[in-house]
Each structure stands twice: as C-alpha cells, then as structure tokens.
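Have a think about this chain, tokens included, and walk me through the fold.
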Amino acid sequence: MSDADAPPTVPAPRGPELTDDQRVARARAFADEQAARRTIREFTPDPVPLEAVREAVRAAASAPSGANVQPWRFVLVTDPAVKRRIREGAEAEEREFYERRAGREWLDALAALGTDAEKPFLETAPALVVVFEVHQGGGEPKPYYPKESVGIAVGILLAALHHAGLATLTHTPSPMRFLGEILERPRNERPFVLVPVGYPAPGARVPAISRKPLAEVLVER
C-alpha cells in the first residue's frame, strides 16, 4: 500500500506525565474502588442524574471493537410503564428457567446468591440500560467479534457507573427476545445484557462472598 492509499491517521493520544509511583498509585486506587463494587438487587426508587448515566454510556462507547465497527446500542429506560413490561417479560422467562430449564447443579450454584424468579428491581430501579449487540442489517455493517466487543463495552459501563457512585446489576434473562420487542428495536439488534441503575435501598444486603486474590488470577512468565 502506498502512502497515498494509506488510511488517514492522527497523532496517538498521550496520557498525563506521571512518575512510576504515581502510575502505581492511580492503578491501585482504581482497583480498590472497583473492588468495592457489588451487585445490588434492592434499589430505592429515587431518581438518578441521567446525565451521569449518559456519560457512563459515552465511556462505554469508547471501547475497542473488531474493525472499529462499534456493534453496540444502549437503550436508556426510565418510563415506569415500559419498566413494568420489561419486568413482566423477564419474570416469565425466569420462571421457565427456575422451574424447567436450569439443572440441579446450576440451581445449587445460584442458591448461595439468594436469587429467584422475582425481579422487582426491574421496576424499582429508576433507570435501566439495555445493551444490544448490533449485527448486519438495516444499514449496519457486518460486525467482527461482536460479543467480545460488546462485553468490553459493558465492563467499561459498569466501572463508569460505579465510579459515578451508582449501583448496578447485570441481568440476563434467557432468552431475551422480549426486550427487542418491548423496546421496538430492529431484528439485527440482539439483547446482550440488562443493567438496572440506581441507589441501594436502606438496609440492602449482599451475599457474603469474596473475590479470588491477585496471586490466584494473575500468571507472570
């Protein structure tokens, strides 16, 4: 490829000028902040600043993606009637899961988290962010590594919302086709995850679980 045919470029962004100690301190502070994040299933109905949610989505949309196709769509839901329909659809699928689809091993694993087919948080949380994986069609190009790309974006979304002082939950009722129907999304947009956003209810509790230590998850060669 000649220089004339090469795609346009811009200078690579440079981060702040920091000492090594400052870089370690920033990384440690971020890790400590994220380590405090917990999945919340009991929310207050108190409204959240939607501009903070929009900025978190903007951060998520900065994620890398295969061939820079950016195969994601974020739908922000605050309408109580729509949230009600989403809860009804999710609970219908969850009842099927708990009563028929899930095996004993899976149910035993979930028992420690205290979950069941009832999902009141889908109505109580003041905002829901429904993330869709966008496929070819309707003017959208073919995506490359869509699940990996959207997964990275969702990770950034959760980190950004937590950084903003908001609580979240990742909810994946299966199948999730009802979300596309309720939210009137085109067929090439496939539901990926549903993220309630809000504040923990007074007295809310979470399971007494722990994360694996760094030595158990990091291998250095």
About this structure: The chain is about 40% helix and 10% strand. The two ends are 37 Å apart (CA to CA).
